[in-house]
Write a structure and sequence with these properties.
mainly alpha, globular, 8% strand, single chain, 14 helices
Length: 363
């Protein structure tokens, strides 16, 4: 007999599935058999897709002819043929998995951003007055006395624990980001929580690697542990030393100030940092160590030089030559975003102004 004991975790999962499955089942269904074969390292054919298009199959016998130099063989094999398409949106199109995944990714990012905007607006209307100040004081408070130095490490542990519970660092950080946006949660408190979330998300990869077959367990576990130690190394580099904590926090505040002034900068930053930069580094790595070092070292030296000059311009401008105390000697597009902002604003305003004209001309 099966154990009929139902835990609270099982109830939570069933409740979440009851809420989401009616909607997701109308969009796409994943062929779990194909997913299991991929996880086990089984080779699948080019015509096999994760997007489940057929919900009912029938087995038919197909005769195939094989020839060699002296004989001809007729072999009969059984083939599954779909007879009833699934009632999902993507079952009606014969797109490859890459196209379906791209559409779902773009749609999910749009929905995520839309929901975050609504959450921020809702929290802005809720957390006002004394409630906001009391909650802000409680969340951002440190432990009393000598234990105050342990506050950040406890926040890291909490971030890891909550991420393990929800099995997603994106959900955890997305839930906390609006609280930072409305001023309830400080960036200094959000920083260790995010670091803990980066630790917690590695447990998913480790658990998935343990499900691999015995002949592939070593390789999959190595990849999962690389992910784990990479995140641990980042935390060891930027958190234990108090001075190093200021670097990512200052960068986050600086990027926030720039994005508040130029709203388009967020999209440009995401495109450059998450697409152009990784693609460029990967391409240089494929070209060989010599090319990678020949291109990478000068770029790193230039970046380091710019950072040093920027710090000296703010802290000790007298240590620099008069010409280097500002960046005004460079072309405007190298030291200011105002010109690019005017260009983007003009293009957007022009496209908006042309739309009523096009509509009126059609009428």
């Amino acid at each position: 007999m099966k154990d009929s004991t139902v835990t609270r975790e099982d109830l939570d999962k069933e409740l979440l599935k009851k809420l989401t499955k009616p909607f997701t089942s109308l969009i796409v269904k994943v062929d779990k058999n194909v997913l299991y074969d991929i996880a086990r390292g089984v080779e699948i054919g080019d015509d096999v897709t994760l997007n489940k298009r057929w919900c009912k199959y029938k087995t038919v016998e197909v005769e195939e002819e094989f020839r060699n130099e002296t004989h001809v063989f007729n072999i009969t094999r059984e083939v599954k043929v779909g007879i009833d398409r699934c009632h999902t949106l993507f079952a009606k199109v014969d797109w490859p998995d890459t196209a379906v995944g791209a559409v779902l990714l773009i749609a999910s990012l749009f929905i995520l951003c839309f929901c975050l905007i609504l959450i921020v607006k809702l929290l802005n209307s809720i957390f006002r007055g004394k409630l906001a100040s009391a909650l802000k004081k409680f969340i951002n408070a440190d432990f009393p006395g000598p234990l105050r130095y342990l506050t950040g490490y406890v926040a890291i542990a909490l971030g890891a624990a909550f991420t393990i519970l929800v099995q997603s660092s994106s959900i955890f950080t997305s839930a906390l980001t609006p609280l930072v946006g409305v001023g309830v949660l400080s960036i200094e408190r959000m920083f260790p929580l995010t670091l803990g979330s980066n630790i917690g998300t590695t447990t998913t990869a480790i658990l998935a690697s343990l499900a691999a077959s015995s002949d592939k367990l070593r390789s999959t576990l190595q990849v999962a542990l690389c992910h784990f130690f990479f995140n641990i190394s980042g935390i060891a580099l930027f958190y234990p030393i108090p001075f190093m904590r200021k670097i990512p926090i200052a960068l986050a505040k600086g990027l926030g100030d720039v994005t508040a002034q130029y709203r388009w900068f967020a999209l440009v930053y995401i495109f450059l940092v998450f697409f152009i930069l990784p693609t460029s580094v990967f391409g240089l790595s494929l070209a060989g160590t010599t090319v990678f070092m020949a291109v990478g070292i000068p770029i790193l030296v230039i970046i380091l030089l710019i950072v040093v000059i920027n710090v000296l311009q703010r802290k000790k401008p007298t240590w620099l030559p008069v010409k280097l105390r500002t960046w005004e000697f460079l072309p405007w597009w190298l030291h200011s975003l105002d010109g690019l902002d005017r260009l983007i604003t003009a293009c957007v305003c022009k496209s908006k102004a042309e739309k009523p004209t096009e509509v009126s001309s059609k009428l």
